[in-house]
Amino acid sequence: MELQLHVAVAQGKIIKKNMINYTLTYSESVQGWPSFYSYNPDLIIGMNQYLYTFNGGNLYRHNTNERRNNYYGADYDSSITGVFNQEPTTTKVFKTIELESDDSWDCLLSSDLGQGYMPASYFDEKEGGWFAFIRRISGSENFDLRSTQGIGNFLSTSGTSPGTITIDFSISISNIINYGDNVYYKDLLGTQEIKKAGKITSISSNRKTIEVNAVDLEPSGTSIPTGAYIFTTKNSVAESYGTLGYYLQFELTNNNTNAVELFTIDADVFKSNP
Fold first, then answer.
1. Cβ count near 210 (within 10 Å)
2. In angstroms, what CA-CA distances link 48 with 2, 29, 64, 244?
3. Cα separation of 86 and 96, whole Å?
4. 13 and 54, same structural domain?
5. Same domain, 169 and 228
6. In whole angstroms, what is the distance from residue 198 CA to residue 183 CA?
7. Residue 53's CB: how many other CB atoms inside 10 A?
8. Domain check: are 126 and 251 in the same one?
9. Can you tell me the distance from the alpha carbon of 78 to that of 3, in angstroms, rounded to the nearest whole number?
10. How confident is the model at residue 13 (pLDDT cuts 50, 70, 90)?
11. How many domains does the chain have?
12. Are 216 and 196 in contact (CB under 8 A)?
């Protein structure tokens, strides 16, 4: 049986009981503190091989039914946080995550150079494990990536947000740029600010004119200013290649109220060679 101690920490110090905001467990077998719990009892005690807590004047006995992560009538998520940091001075590309588990998990990733997110539905079950390619967070943009394509200054524009804005160029735009790409501009003659205009909805046959659904350009009635530099990006999730970084921190979350086992967390990693 694990001995549970109810403590709170703020700025490195133990604080008064009425300021407690989480529960820790101490395991005598590992001589450490392996878990944090979401419930916050008024009193906690182990007795006769059972764990009892008081909350709001009511007495609860824990671990007496099959429903997991339910405390005082409220359901909570299970979560675990860890880090891949082998060869910490080498920049690496993290390509995939594999979970040796009997259920898939939501996975939030962060490194010193990027972020990623895969909901549980992104994982495929293969040979008893769950496998997913690392995806960037939807809507996140990194203009340093190769999925960013510059076009240049325009000849003329017409239209305002949130309607259609037509942009004419003196040269044909690259074949890499296509329908659905995000259009941005940088106000070179004014604020130097980068703004998102919207998505490309039409490209002329000579590839010198594009139409943009400018729903992202605010405030309403805004037009693209004279002298602005136009560039595009691809869908951040579809164009994912993994996550760069010296390390990769992961946070796994599971909301299953049945028993779930997680044995190992693996990643496919290789050295970045720019």
1. 24
2. 12, 19, 14, 51
3. 16
4. yes
5. yes
6. 6
7. 21
8. yes
9. 20
10. very low
11. 3
12. yes
Same domain, 104 and 179: no
Per the listing, tokens 């240049």 go with 152
91-114, pLDDT tens digit by residue?
999 999 999 999 999 999 999 988
- The predicted-structure confidence for 215-261, as pLDDT tens digits, reads as follows 999 999 999 999 999 999 988 887 777 888 999 999 999 999 999 99
| CA pseudo-torsion sign 134, 137, 138, 140 | negative
Tell me: do 194 and 253 sit in the same domain: no
Owner of token pair 């941005």: 184
Q: Is 102 exposed, middle or buried (0-12, 13-18, 19+ CB in 10 A)?
A: middle
Strand, helix or coil at 120?
Answer: helix
Identify the DSSP state of 19: G
pLDDT in the model for residue 114: 84
Measured in degrees and rounded to the nearest 5, phi and psi for residue 122 equal: -80, -15
Domain range for 93 is 79-140+240-271
β-pair partners for 100: 264
